Predict the 3D structure of the following.
Amino acid sequence: MSREVRNKHLPYRLWPMALAGVVLLSACTTLGPDYQAPPQPALPTEWKPEETVAESEAVADWWRLFNDPVLDKLIEQGASENLSIEAAGLRIVQARAALGISDALVFPQQQQVNGSFAALYRNEDWFNSANISLDVGWEMDIWGKYARGIESAEANLYASIASYHDVLVTISAEIARNYVNYRTAQERIFLSRQNIAIQQRVVEMTQVQYDAGNVSELDVQQAKTQLHATQSSLPSLNISRIQARNALAVLLGTLPEELEPMLQLAEEPEIPNFVDATSGTQRQLLLADEAAKYSVIPTVPELNPSIDPQLVMRRPDLKVAEMLTRAQSARIGLTEADLYPQFFLFGSVGLSQTVESGDSFDASDALTANIGPGLSWNIFQYDRIKNRVRIEDALFQESLTNYNQSVITAVQEVTNALEGYQYTLNKSRYDALGVEASIRAFNISANQYNNGLVSYQRLLSTVEKMTLREDVYAQTRGSIANQVVALYKALGGGWEPLSGRPIVKPETVEKMRQRTDWGEYLEPATILGEDRDE
């Protein structure tokens, strides 16, 4: 073979070497910064990890501290039926599908079958033109553009999972808060009814004194005024109860009338009213620990005021912020790749032929094929691409700032809830003493009024204060329970025991499969990214 002939075939022999070089570059070059987790932020030094308010297990299912089976059932149902939780689960499915798109970009990006038929007129003659081809184009990931895209999409997937957990935290806390509000309104209604019964008895006492000529009609009308004022509070209290019930119905994805039976008490607490059942002029004194026996407001044992700082860092919303930071970090390299040439391989095989009108196509003479490398390079972009990279970098720095802000906000929420719990607990002790003193004052004034030793104004004042102090004490006990809820929500508790259930309900999965070919994308392991190699 002549030298000329050998040189003619030399370029074809170099193709494997060139392709190997391209693949080698693709395997070892990734532009952009490699993600590093944000440094551990400073946390309050007064928090003592050796004496914690609760271990991780207690934080995980904190609502069981209330020892209320109804609350347990409501939270379980909410985790299964709440529509916000269902929507958060579907956002995970969307993020997993988006990751699948990024995964697929490492394979040939263009895989198309194209075909056309046309009738052509030229120089007073008609021709028929037909072609069909398979076109393949593959941009090789020389600079890690698609690798960064996968990294960003994967981080978004894990952010959506953490967001799902954050919704579980929020919903469980909202269910508990509204349940506490419902029971607090109930208790205030019970107390109001008891005090209405007392005030009705006071009206009767005053009427007897008026009929006997011992007091003026003014005393009777003032007694009725106080009675009607207390009676008028009942509709407002019932409105509060109904609003809490309706909020629970929304959180549980059900109707209020379907929820009502779950909230019914086996029997209403019968708070003792009178020592002297015949005269009804003496209110039985109940100390704080005795009054708790008749309360329907959920309570927990007194909490240790110390906090393990690491519990705060396990909050799902902080994980969301961190994963969004990671996703944004990958976008820097993805955009930076546009500064450099993009190498690709292309190929096409098909049939193409033009014949005179009326003649038949001859496939044996119509075969076309081409294959080769190519490149594309945006070399005159006038800093537009660099500015896009700068924008992505600034967005990354902003996401770091947002993460730090989220940590500070988390610390604020924990501190507010913990200190709010402690101060409300102290307030409840004074409120309990106030209730005790107001009952003693009422008993004394009622006895002295019957014996003509004090004016009706003194009796009326003690009735009013007793009614008020009991209502305030009930609200304070409800506030204590809500501060406990706020504390454990601030610690990020409530998602671990609820996250073992299906992300998407089986009936929803079946509907989606009937509409669309989902393949394995609705399998639990695939949704959560557990099918991917770490």
In short: Residues 39-106+141-340+377-501 form a domain with the Outer membrane efflux proteins (OEP) fold (CATH 1.20.1600.10).
